[in-house]
Amino acid sequence: MKQPQIFIPLFFIGLILSGVYPKEYFTWFLEVLPAIIGFLILLFTYKKFPFTNFTYFFILIHCYILFLGGHYTYAEVPLFDWIKETFDQTRNNYDKVGHFAQGFVPAMITKELFIRKNVISNPRFFNFVIVSICLAISAAYEWLEWGVSLCTGDGGDAFLGTQGYVWDTQSDMLYATIGAISMLILFSKRHDKAIQEQFQAQ
Q1: Are 131 and 107 in contact (CB under 8 A)?
Q2: For residue 165, which phi and psi values (nearest 5 degrees)?
């Protein structure tokens, strides 16, 4: 298996660039913190459980989504401001990209863990459990956003990022669920092949 070290400098390049004159440093820190925590977890568990490069690639994409949202804040990413104005939308919807990835990437991580550790022997429950876990992760993150906003007051408003949309929390969880289902439908076979190739290489 090819070593995934190339992803490490790419991670730090994205992190550093996102931290150059962001919209607001406190919000930037809150938005990129999950990526930093995830990086440390993957780093310290690498020898015991290295993921496929296929999975690492999508994890890196998710990190870049977080970096971009941290730099501009999710409510002010320029491309999605343009989309908002062009298609007469009521809000900047970049945060929905983030929540889609919040379901898509954890589904891939969970799937690989389940397959390689043989967590679930009955395949009929396999996808259901993965989607349920991703939905639980999304709900927990909504609790986190709520808690940070309560603790920090106005300083956490940009992190919460509801933009006045009353159904923001529910729609965030919906997009995460769609992301998880999309991963399982569109990329399961390619992911399975990547896992098989890694086992053969070992």
Answers
A1: yes
A2: -85, 115
Contact 2, 53 (CB under 8 A): yes
C-alpha atoms less than 13 angstroms from C-alpha of 89 in its C-beta half-sphere: 15
* Cβ proximity of 104 and 179 under 8 Å: yes
Question: 0.85 cut: is pTM over it?
Answer: yes
Chain segment 37-78, per-residue pLDDT in tens: 999 999 999 999 999 999 999 999 999 999 999 999 998 999
The CB-side HSE value for 113 (13 A sphere, CA atoms) comes to 12
On the question of pLDDT at 133 being above 90, the answer is: yes
The answer to whether the CB of 145 falls within 8 A of the CB of 73 is no
Residue 110 and residue 120 in contact, taking contact as beta carbons nearer than 8 Å: no
How far is it, in rounded angstroms, from Cα 149 to Cα 66? 18
What's the Rg (C-alpha) of the chain?
A: 18
C-alpha closest to that of 24 among 71, 75, 92? 71
Q: What letter represents residue 120's amino acid?
A: I
Helix (H, G, I), strand (E, B) or coil at 104: helix
